[in-house]
Amino acid sequence: MSSPITGTAAGVPFTALPPVGNGPAPLVVTWHMLDAPRSDAAFAAALPMEGLPAWRVHLGMPMCGARMVDGRTDAVMELVREDVLMSFLFPFVRQAAGEFPAALASLREQLPVGDGPVGVLGGSLGGAVALRILADTDIPVFAGAIVNGAVRLRSVVGLFPGEYPYDAESEKAVESVDFVARAGAIAGRAPLLVVSGEEDHLGLRADASELADALGERAELLSVPGLAHPLADEPGIEPAPQLPLAREVDARLVAWFRRHLPGTAREPSAG
To answer: In 10 A of CB 213, how many CB atoms?
Structure first.
């Protein structure tokens, strides 16, 4: 496996895995889960995409990994208790997506990745970030992928105990992170691989299927038998040995991004 390179890009911590030879190559950027693996370093170990002739740069989500307060998850849990949607889920997605353009510019200065289109990959809540980059920005993207992704934030809110007290502001927030409804904005941007574990939460599986259907030939749905929501064992903060099911997902991601890398022969459709 490539030796990881760690650093920060416009204040965002990252773990980068170089291609063979450490030379110039396209860039694939990822956002990790808030379940295990819940840091950029742990996500890089779970889904290293080794053998892909590209730089794989795993970005840290807000208040995770190197940005944890006092190295603990207590601050995150306090936000969950305060308001799971408006203090935790929605601000995390908004901040991670909002800080990406500056982080990308910094990565281009630090690594030999050129200025061409990038690949984007997100797991769980990181999936919502990747989808937001596709739906809300004009950053050129050659291909995207999500793994057990948060396609509809309303479905994620429903995984937490109790009935959430929606009001006009929170309704507007969840509607902005409903990528089935916004599939038209994504379809014109890049082909998307939608990976869904057969043991993932039922609501997330349904959303994944609906997103793939809405995108039509621009998407490919991969259902993985035996895969639950996490991709690594707890606690999921430090790098850990790759689990067999994560290895299976990893291989499919390598094949997907390799197929769509800039300069390679393209298929007539992504389906």
So the answer is: 13
CA-CA distance, 51 to 32, in Å (whole number)? 20
Which tens digit of pLDDT belongs to each residue from 26-52? Answer: 999 999 998 999 999 999 999 999 999
pLDDT in tens, 219-243: 999 999 999 999 999 999 999 999 9
Residue 257 is encoded by which pair of tokens? 């991004």
For residue 49, give the nearest of 66, 34, 27 by alpha carbon: 27
Q: Which two tokens stand for residue 131?
A: 């989808």
Helices (H), 51-176: 74-82, 90-98, 100-110, 125-136, 153-157, 168-176
| Among 174, 264, 235, CA closest to 42 | 235
Domains annotated on the chain, with CATH: 5-260 (3.40.50.1820)
User: Could you give the angle at which helices 90-98 and 125-136 cross, rounded to 10 degrees?
Assistant: 50
Rounded CA-CA distance 258/83 in Å is: 40
Q: Report the distance separating Cα 198 and Cα 200, nearest Å.
A: 6
Q: Can you give the pTM of this predicted structure?
A: 0.93
Chain CA centroid to CA 47, Å: 11
